[in-house]
Design goal:
With about 325 residues, the chain is an alpha+beta fold. The protein contains six helices and 17 strands. The chain folds into two domains: about 1-160, no CATH class; about 170-300, no CATH class. α1 packs across α3.
Length: about 325
């Protein structure tokens, strides 16, 4: 397929030459750096002008080595793009089974490079990936779906350019909902633009991967905002946080968040709000306006002796 795409590109000069001189290019091909830890945009002057020809030319470039030793093609040599289709503004790409052999970091960077390159073409707004005849899914079996350039923007004006990994310690509810269980995730991959506190909250909302645990946070809760100032992490959740699951005790819900965030070295206290509102209490007794510290007494099997009170408000009375 790669050889076929490259061969097609050789005739693009003839096809585009019939329409006169091409306009000045503002296109880029997104390559990987030589360490394969980041994507790098490289200016590119296409030979084609028509949408279909540009698609084939750009796909060929994404599958081809460059003369620059600093760059690597984003689509590995053993991965083939077997076909494509353009339906309206949706470009669908089919990859062979070797796509699944890529590591987590390389796969995300490959996907970002392909989508950001292809959506430069006028008439291509989103890209969908298939592996053989099945739509692409993440490691948890969730559909990736159609992607745009904005799919790889974590914060306004900041695009995913590199992927890092870290170890996280998270706390979820036990099966009976009356205690916390610790789950250590040794390798969590994330965009360099994502703060660690946001990463922790996203992982908590995703739920546990180990047996004997369940999410303490009510189903359907979404993260509105999270930030850290002077050692205090401010977490704003949406109205879904009010959805009560009384099979999980009130302190377990709060300290699932607090203990997980306090595992980060920059955080020692946490305040939780609902859409920024800290008035009232969560359920019956835990005040939202209070700043909570780590509570190890709720953790099953913990013998550290570093426990705080079950309902810890740190403001001076």
């Amino acid at each position: 397929m790669q050889a076929c795409l490259l061969a097609l590109c050789m005739v693009f000069g003839v096809l585009s030459g019939c329409g006169g001189a091409p306009e000045e290019s503002t296109y880029y091909i997104e390559y990987l750096n030589k360490e394969k830890t980041a994507i790098v945009p490289v200016a590119y002057e296409p030979e084609s002008t028509r949408t279909g020809d540009l698609i084939r030319e750009f796909l060929a470039a994404l599958c081809s080595d460059t003369d620059e030793v600093e760059y690597r093609k984003p689509v590995p040599s053993d991965v083939e793009i077997t076909r494509y289709s353009l339906d309206g503004a949706l470009l669908t790409l089919w990859f062979d089974a070797d796509y699944k052999k890529m590591g987590a970091v390389e796969e995300v960077l490959c996907r970002a490079a392909v989508v950001r390159t292809m959506t430069q073409i006028k008439g291509v707004d989103t890209v969908n990936f298939y592996v053989e005849d099945a739509p692409l899914t993440d490691s948890h079996g969730n559909l990736i779906g159609s992607m745009s350039a904005d799919s790889f923007v974590e914060n306004p004006g900041e695009q995913i350019n590199s992927i890092q990994n870290t170890a996280l310690t998270l706390y979820f509810a036990n099966e009976t909902g009356d205690a916390l269980v610790r789950e250590v995730r040794e390798e969590v991959y994330y965009s360099s633009n994502v703060s660690l506190e946001k990463l922790v909250m996203e992982q908590l909302l995703e739920g546990p991967s180990a047996k004997g645990a369940k999410s303490a946070i009510p189903a359907g809760t979404k993260l509105v905002k999270v930030s850290v100032v002077d050692g205090v992490c401010y977490v704003s959740l949406d109205e879904g946080f009010r959805n009560q699951d009384y099979q999980v005790s009130e302190p377990v819900v709060i300290y699932s968040i607090v203990n997980s965030l306090c595992e980060l070295p920059a955080i020692n206290k946490v305040q939780i709000s609902i859409n920024g509102d800290t008035s009232g209490v969560y359920r019956d007794t835990l005040k939202l306006e209070d700043m909570y510290e780590r509570n190890q007494e709720l953790v099953e099997g913990d013998t550290s002796g570093k426990a705080d009170l079950e309902e810890t408000g740190t403001e001076e009375e």
